Amino acid sequence: MRRATPVAPLDVREVEAFDTETDVLVVGYGCAGAAAALEATAAGRDVTILERASGGGGSSALSGGEMYLGGGTPVQAACGFEDSADDMEAYLLAALGPDADAEKVGLYARESLDHYRWLVEHGVPFKPSLWDSPTWVPPTDDGLMWLGENAWPYTEIARPAPRGHRVTSEGFGGKVLMAKLIDAVSHTPADVHTDTYATRLIVDGERVVGAVGRRYGTDHYYRAGAVVLTTGGFADNSDMVAEHAPQLVGLGVNSDGSDDGRGILMAQAVRAAVRHMSAGQVGISLVPGMMVRGMIVNHVGQRFLNEDVYPGLVGQAALYGQKLRVWVILDEKAYEEVPENERWGVQPHVVAETLAELEQQIGMPEGALETTVGEYNRHAANGEDPYFHKAARWLRPLEPPFAAIDVRRGMTPPEDGGADGGAAVFTIGGLRTTVDGHVLDLDGAPIPGLFAAGRATSGLHAWGYVSGTSLGDGTYFGRRAGVAAADQ
Fold first, then answer.
1. Both 352 and 224 in a single domain?
2. Cα 369 to Cα 330: distance, rounded to the nearest angstrom
């Protein structure tokens, strides 16, 4: 199928005249683009930012605002936790794997403290207080949260410490993060061109020397010493999702609507390599506080993981292992223990006095749920979970009446339009890059003049995900890409 807007690179000899010449051209103005621009301008380079929308922010501005940071930050210390880069690295390698980028994870962990300081220096606020219950986003402005570090099996891999540093905000914190970074960029000489959609790269032989940007139907030609792609993932491109990540087809999308994969396609057109394109973050439609007080089971009534791990890992296990045919099972006490402002309006879909009635209404095999809950209750009475080792604080026997929540029916969380098909997803695979943001070609060599950061790249991740490793990855490796591009 021939694209209406060509993505193939344009030879520099075909450009009659350039509209703009700059040292560093940053394509995309989310958190990665802002970080790249800040570091490139700090290095004394002329910087131009292209943004397809009418202002910066992108999907970063719609996020919860968690930044995965550790190694002993002031926020961790104020909340009474010790942490080390080694423990942070070990947890991330386990949670983001298999095949997480070990070099990037190690560097990110070792420099996490410095990155925290950089963020604070640029005005990003973090409150030194802890939210201590499983959640997607705290309903308070607490600045620190657990992201599965205190759950088995990770407690046997690394010393637990909460590392979810949430940008101080009422509601989701991404808008505050981007407001601070955009304000910082506004105090630099960087030139921001909004309403400009980058369509293709410009090359001189094997070197990338610029890009074409379309503004109000007219092409504008940008020449640059280096190009940094920070254009986001491809969750909004149905053709790319179907081709690379078919298990995400038909699900809701967690983005600002512009994650169309154009940056990835532009780079692939100059022989860029990609990694982990089938991987996705799965924001499963459940309330973590309900699941952890009860259990999650598959369509034949079996538990399949520890319910107090990071809920995104639950979502991935539910989608990739169970095709989202999963139910949250709880009793009346468990439901009532979740504060109303944390229930997000979710109510049970099925209620019954007995497990036999519940499994019949759900359509599970006779006796399946009775067996699972019976075995769970037998050990929970002693504060034990020999199957999945859920923390003792969440263990107790479940008692009638019982309830079930069908995850596939979705829910409507605050500041979100809800999820279709039981989950809202985004892609976490993308361009293969070095720790300095150089985009690598199919032979593993850097493509001259081309850099990338953020969700346009595979970043830290493989087939695992933890909140904060998009904003954290994007800002940190965006910074490194900006420095490296400035050196071109």
1. no
2. 12
From 144, 168, 192, the end of a domain falls on 168
C-alpha–C-alpha distance, residues 450 and 452, integer Å: 7
**Would you call 166 helix, strand, or coil by DSSP?**
strand
Residues 444, 456: Cα–Cα separation, whole Å: 18
Report the CATH number at residue 405: 3.90.700.10
Q: Do residue 399 and residue 296 come from a single domain?
A: yes
**Of 18, 7, 438, 13, which Cα lies nearest the Cα of 204?**
13
- What is the domain range of residue 271? 10-62+175-281+423-486
Q: What is the DSSP string of 374-418?
A: HHHHHHHTTT--TTT---GGG-----SSEEEEEGGG----TTS--
pLDDT tens digits for the chain (488 residues)? 455 689 999 999 999 999 999 999 999 999 999 999 999 999 999 999 999 999 999 999 999 999 999 999 999 999 999 999 999 999 999 999 889 999 999 999 999 999 999 999 999 999 999 999 998 988 899 999 999 999 999 999 999 999 999 999 988 999 999 999 999 999 999 999 999 999 999 999 999 999 999 999 999 999 999 999 999 999 999 999 999 999 999 999 999 999 999 999 999 999 999 999 999 999 999 999 999 999 999 999 999 999 999 999 999 999 999 999 999 999 999 999 999 888 888 899 999 999 999 999 999 999 999 999 999 999 999 999 999 999 999 999 999 999 999 999 887 544 454 445 789 999 999 999 999 999 999 999 999 999 999 999 999 998 899 999 999 999 999 999 999 999 98
In terms of domains, do 312 and 437 share one? no
- Asked if 210 and 154 sit in the same domain, the reply is no
Token pair 């292992």 is found at: 321
Of the three residues 409, 432, 466, the one that is the final residue of a domain is 409
Kindly report whether the global pTM for this prediction surpasses the value 0.85: yes
